[in-house]
Amino acid sequence: MRYAWLTDIHLNFIDDVARQKFYQEIVNTGCDGVLISGDIAEAPCLAGILNEMVRYVDKSIYFVLGNHDYYRGQIDEVHNEMRELTKNNDKLFWLPASRMQILENNTILIGQDGWADGRLGDYKNSRVVLSDSRMIADLFQEKILGKYQLLEKMQQLADADAMKLQNDLEQAISQAPKKIMVLTHVPPFKEACLHQGKASGDDWLPYFGSKVIGDMLFEIAQKNNKIGFLVFCGHTHSESQYIPLPNLIIEVGKAEYNYPEIQKVIII
Questions:
Q1: How do the domains of the chain map onto residue ranges?
Q2: CA distances from 248 to 14, 44, 107, 180, 254 (A)
Q3: What is the pLDDT of residues 153-188, one digit of tens each?
């Protein structure tokens, strides 16, 4: 079976004609399903674009959300909409709602959105200000209170998704699979966080990585060395691969606004 992996496609930036051209490129891969590791669109048009995509490609789409998917929205409202979408469309799977998916050849797919947690790099002295704290209502409310209130909210979101992902992993491991594939948006190790093709500096790293998920993945993979863990993410727009353990591979996809692309076709 073949799965087309996409990330950071930002389909709200392109018009109907360009989106249909991209959907046809997905169909042309001959894939049996689609995996998306976040940043699909923005909150007001996210559900519409996902419904449009699944109508056109007519394949199962397994996805998590990225920070941009919450832009111009509130986190709980987006979550509720994605749960309804997953419930009402048998080919759309928001993985935090649909949970563990058993694929072919003793492979299991799981996923959680994930958030940057400010624990990598130097948050205290960083002068970077991402649009997240202006465009996502929940983060904006904390940002106006102060820099460290924003950090607390970032870590609250990141820690909650890390806990959910750990629970998903434990459930998947109980099935004794050969391989577990994980979709998440934010890279879980600083070594996987590149910016414009180069290692991210301490000013960007607080917003580019999720240390809490990286620590958890490392510990679980180390304890279960007979299972292969493949983690697919995006967020930084720079391609990278990092292998912290022989059985743990992190892949980050590249991206450019207005030019969505297929990262690769994964054969299971």
A1: 2-267
A2: 35, 36, 15, 10, 20
A3: 999 999 999 999 999 999 999 999 999 999 999 999
